[in-house]
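Researcher: I'd like a structural prediction for the single chain below. Treat it as a standalone chain; there are no partners to consider.
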Amino acid sequence: MTEKGLSLPLSEKELAIVQAYADMNGFTVDEAASKLLSEAIAKRVRKNTGKGRAKVYPIRREREIK
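Model: Treating it as a single chain, here is the predicted structure.
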């Protein structure tokens, strides 16, 4: 993610954050930006769909009971 070929429009502050994350975890800036973006999308999906476990309801087959 060089300054000439940015795939995402990032401000200088955002680019500094991504660069720090990349340096801290040993990623390239491209890999760090992709990872942070995928984590943000996953967090948003979890937030919108709820965090609780799925409820499993028993299926009652009336025809088999009779």
